[in-house]
Design a protein that fits this description.
With about 450 residues, the chain is of the alpha/beta class. It has 14 helices and 19 strands. Bound molecules: zinc ion (ZN).
């Protein structure tokens, strides 16, 4: 018995030793010189200060920005991209969207329970891939993808883009929304008992132990932010519950977003000190003041009134709330909750379908109706979005060392924010995705992963 154990131990030691040492013995691929791209920008916007500088040069080496300034020399062999007639700016952020959910009038009658029943996780993951390309085409280089994404289709989408399988924004996924029993809707006893229909969409977590477990599960499966359904039920989360989730999420480097739909839930979320409050409707002017004092981001999901969505009274309320939040100096993000489609979503002039990117940008209508100055809207769409997505250390601002996520438009978004609807150039991770208004994504496609796999903890 002892002998067998010793043999077993020796075998385990040998296997482990081989596993540990083999990669070090294999020669890596020969180091290739990084491609260098020089972007000549007619104007370069710094959305943090709301200012622009003329005739700037951006040098991109590989995936990252190497230098920015006026009159920088072009390194030999560099590819030169002439955007001298354009305004260049960092990529845009949607701070609250759902890349792998699209509920429809037919066959679901806009009832998204039915989408969960009728569309598989793999189908929804592929929809997410298409939406990612559409969003990048409109200039969005970061999206917070917060729940209602089947069984971790959102974290898979992040990984696929990060590994280089397809072009898309950097996805900040939450995994399934965590809520007290029932999540955001009212399952039948059959659904609840057997957890086999809607349960990819929510994690039930009632007690403190269950909250800790749910937060850990989401982080284990790739979440980069934690989303709590604070008040989806009358038995919602207390301040203590929310604080517990915040502490647990912090252990894995995640911040917490609170979905709120009642004033009471909103107040508990603010009191607990969440990082982001999602949905502006239940917030009072007093709560805006508290959020500004605490520096809590607002993802208001400010739905416009269009031919295909919304109503005049709801729009008026939304505009009033957004305006008040801006006046109170709440850190605002551009956010949409875009997750639906119907057959009226066409361009009035051309009759063509609007893309997910076009539909996302239509939320600018609300910001314009609220009279928010273009520089502040642009800050919400960029700097505040990078901060709210906790990605500002890595990407966003156009400065040396950060990933090169760069877009360009004709016109001047600092005087007319609608200029960002006409994105002609998109670079993501140093690769050109769109030039002269046409998608040119060939460089993004590979028959295998070309970057290190995602994972906060390297596996
Ligand atoms: Zn949402």
């Amino acid at each position: 018995m002892c002998q067998r154990r010793c043999v077993l131990a020796a075998t385990v030691f040998f296997v482990v030793a081989v596993a540990v040492t083999v990669p070090a013995q294999q020669p890596g691929p020969p180091a290739r010189p990084l491609p260098v791209t020089v972007i000549k920008a007619g104007r370069l916007i710094d959305p943090d200060t709301g200012t622009a500088s003329a005739n700037q040069v951006i040098i991109v080496e590989g995936e990252r920005i190497k230098a920015v300034g006026a009159g920088l020399a072009t390194p030999p062999g560099a590819r030169v991209i002439d955007l001298s007639k354009m305004t260049v700016l960092p990529g845009l952020v949607d701070a609250h969207t759902h890349m792998t959910l699209t509920y429809k009038e037919r066959p679901e009658n806009n009832y998204y329970y039915l989408t969960y029943v009728m569309e598989s996780t793999p189908l929804r993951a592929i929809q997410g891939a298409s939406n990612a390309i559409q969003m990048l085409n409109s200039g969005f280089t970061v999206v917070r993808d917060v729940g209602n994404n089947a069984l971790y289709a959102d974290t898979a989408l992040r990984q696929a883009i990060e590994q280089g399988w397809l072009p898309g924004p950097t996805v900040i996924p939450s995994g399934p929304m965590i809520g007290s029993t029932g999540g955001q809707y009212w399952p039948t006893p059959e659904m609840y008992k057997y957890h086999n229909i809607m349960y990819p969409e929510y994690i039930d977590a009632n007690s403190p132990d269950e909250i800790v477990r749910a937060v850990r599960e989401n982080m284990l499966f790739g979440a980069r932010t934690i989303k709590l359904c604070v008040d989806c039920k009358p038995w919602g989360y207390s301040v203590d519950d929310i604080e517990l989730a915040i502490r647990e999420a912090a252990q894995g480097g995640c911040k917490v977003e609170a979905h709120v739909q009642t004033p009471e839930g909103a107040q508990r979320s603010i009191d607990a000190g969440v990082y982001i409050v999602a949905h502006g409707n239940p917030l009072s002017p007093e709560m805006h003041t508290q959020m500004a004092q605490k520096g809590i981001f607002l993802a208001g999901t400010d739905t416009p009134f269009t031919d295909y969505r919304g109503s005049e009274p709801a729009f008026k309320r939304t505009v009033g709330n957004l305006r008040d939040a801006w006046e109170k100096k709440v850190p605002l993000t551009f956010s949409t909750d875009m997750d639906y489609w119907n057959e009226r979503m066409v361009d009035e002039k051309t009759g063509e379908w609007l893309t997910r990117g076009d539909l996302t940008l239509n939320f600018l209508q609300t910001w314009k109706a609220a009279g928010i100055p273009p520089a502040d809207v642009l800050r919400a769409m960029t700097i505040n979005g990078y901060k709210a997505s906790d990605s500002i250390q890595e990407r966003g601002p156009i400065k040396p060392g950060l990933y090169a996520d760069i877009i360009a438009v004709p016109g001047d978004p600092l005087t007319e924010i609608d200029a960002v609807r006409n994105v002609q150039f998109v670079m993501k991770n140093g690769m050109v995705f769109k030039q002269d208004g046409v998608m040119t994504p060939a460089a993004f496609f590979h028959p295998g992963p070309v970057r290190m796999p995602s994972g906060r903890w390297t596996r």
